[in-house]
Write a structure and sequence with these properties.
Blueprint lengths: L5 H13 L29 H9 L2 H6 L10 H9 L9 H44 L2
Helix pairs in contact: 1-4, 2-5, 4-5
Length: 138
Amino acid sequence: MHNVTSRHRQIANFVQGHATVGRVWPGKNLAFEAVYLTPIYNASLPSAEQLADQFLSDTEFRALQLGDFFNTPTGEFLAEAVKLVIPDWLEPEFGLIVAALQLAASRQQVDSRARVGKGAVLMAGISLVAWALVKGNQ
């Protein structure tokens, strides 16, 4: 693993406190679980889209602001963060959580760009009205 940053820790803390998928649930630290101590989970799991929706509805996830106007973290970066609290051999949960984080970050980025676009259109409209008022008073 590369150097663990505070950003890795923030993401790991969120996952540990909020992800409920199969054998993973809030507060359970699986980082040191042994393969033989963690039985296979056979119940149906949510899709990455469903889990991303859950993350996006969470205030703490939104506060992480993983997806901003310019970028989103890579899958490798997110996997490194998740690996701090969930071992990567714990499949399919590990991969599902990483995929959901990527999807949620991408959706945040799209929303961020949409907000900036709406703001730019509003500012252009205000500028046009102000220009028209100045021209009309001359």
